[in-house]
Design goal:
Low-confidence stretches: 368-400
Helix content: 25-40%
Strand content: 25-35%
Structural class: alpha/beta
Length: 420
């Protein structure tokens, strides 16, 4: 079977590319071995945020009295929370499949493999069928990193996938990794009444995000009962809990459950990139500003590039790749990719962090502590708010229950011009 373009992977990058290709008259085939929507819709962004919204509603009810609203003895039904999550995922994945189909794209829900190139066409096999395509877009996503912790294979642990499928709550939970995913799960389980411990090897949570804002969020959750262990290494797990080490001293955190959340890695091994001699770079596929790989007709988008493992980045990358195939001038700009943490309060950032802007040779950076800015959407509820702006590459970072609603405006400001 011959196609103009094959897309391997049906996550945000893959389904966006398929829609754009089909809408512009390209004969396209999309391969997805698991479920349409990829990790984001099935076991990542969407189910996580659905659970977090239920937790946020519960938190709001608990604090209703300070707004003059009475809500006595709020409670929750975990089975109904999980059922709502499942229905949301089913609705959105079904909608994605229907939309892709509406553009005339052929969807093959099996695993595809690159076989090589013959007579100027890229060859792909899937479920015993052979496909010849002019262009190939690889969007195979990423997998959870499982660190080589002694004793891990001998205990029952969760990754984010298992944590989204729970039937009952543990009394205690140790989260190994205090990045975005780890903190979002810490937020959910803390709201549900679970005693949460977060172990992080770095000096602060949330990785590369603004350190002052990260510290503010950590302090807030510490007040709510979450225990943090920073600059701390996990040296072993066993039936009793997690053995940690800090400054040469070892101790054990007792835990009913362990959640691994130390990051994700690009899926590079199975798809057959070596058959086309695709060049790799650090932790992913090397691409240029058009998402073109070392092969002149092969593109890579999404987590497989190992650059920005975010759904909205993947969507934009897919748009750029298809535009390049169509001859439309476009290029990827990573200077204004918004980063979001859906805790309660939420945390968001666009552009460079304060730490990056205050490095040598960035003498024009300014920091503003603000409480009631012109448009009002930085106003906090009895807490400090902060914003970082650089004259060359500005950054907007803040924490608030609903600041994520304004990320499109902030991103536009960072990508365009911000007036002092």
């Amino acid at each position: 079977m011959n196609f103009d373009i094959a897309i391997i992977g049906g996550g945000p990058a893959g389904y966006t590319a398929a829609e754009r290709a089909g809408a512009n008259g390209l004969k396209a085939v999309l391969f997805e071995k698991k479920a349409m929507g990829g990790v984001c819709l099935n076991e990542g962004c969407i189910p996580t945020k659905t659970l977090l919204y239920s937790a946020k509603i519960l938190d709001s009810i608990k604090s209703a009295s300070k707004y003059g609203v009475s809500a006595e003895s709020p409670s929750f039904d975990l089975s109904k929370i999980m059922s709502r999550k499942d229905k949301t995922v089913k609705m959105l994945t079904g909608g994605v499949k229907m939309t892709v189909n509406s553009y005339g794209v052929t969807i093959v829900e099996k695993e595809a493999f690159i076989e090589g190139e013959k007579e100027g066409m890229i060859r792909i096999t899937c479920d015993g069928e052979n496909y010849s395509v002019k262009y190939l877009l690889v969007c195979t996503g990423s997998d959870t990193v499982i660190p080589p912790i002694p004793g891990l294979s001998g205990v029952s642990y969760w990754t984010s996938k298992e944590a989204l499928e729970i039937k009952e709550l543990p009394k205690t939970l140790v989260i190994i990794g205090g990045g975005v995913i780890g903190m979002e799960f810490a937020s959910f389980f803390n709201s549900m009444g679970v005693k949460v411990h977060v172990v992080e090897m770095m000096p602060e949570i949330l990785g590369a995000m603004d350190k002052e804002t990260s510290g503010m969020l950590r302090a807030e959750y510490a007040k709510r009962g979450v225990t943090f262990y920073l600059n701390t290494k996990v040296v072993e797990v066993n039936a009793h809990g997690v053995v940690i080490e800090k400054e040469g001293k070892a101790s054990t955190i007792e835990a009913e459950k362990i959640l691994l959340s130390v990051g994700r890695k690009a899926n590079l091994s199975r798809v057959g990139l070596d058959k086309l001699n695709i060049e790799l770079h650090r932790n992913g596929v090397k691409v240029d500003e058009h998402l073109l790989t070392s092969h002149p007709r092969v593109y890579a988008c999404g987590d497989i590039t190992g650059y920005s493992l975010l759904a909205h980045t993947a969507i934009r990358e897919a748009e750029v790749a298809i535009n390049h195939i169509l001859g439309v001038e476009d290029r990827m700009n990573y200077d204004c990719v918004p980063g979001v943490v859906y805790t309660n309060p939420e945390v968001a950032g666009v552009g460079k962090t304060e730490e990056e802007l205050l490095q040598p040779m960035r003498e024009h950076a300014k920091k503003y502590d603000i409480a009631e800015p012109e448009h009002g959407f930085f106003v906090k509820d009895g807490e400090d708010a902060m914003c970082v702006i650089g004259m060359a590459v500005p950054d907007i970072t803040d924490a608030d229950p609903h600041y994520i609603d304004y990320m499109d405006e902030w991103t536009f400001d960072v990508d365009g011009e911000v007036e002092d």
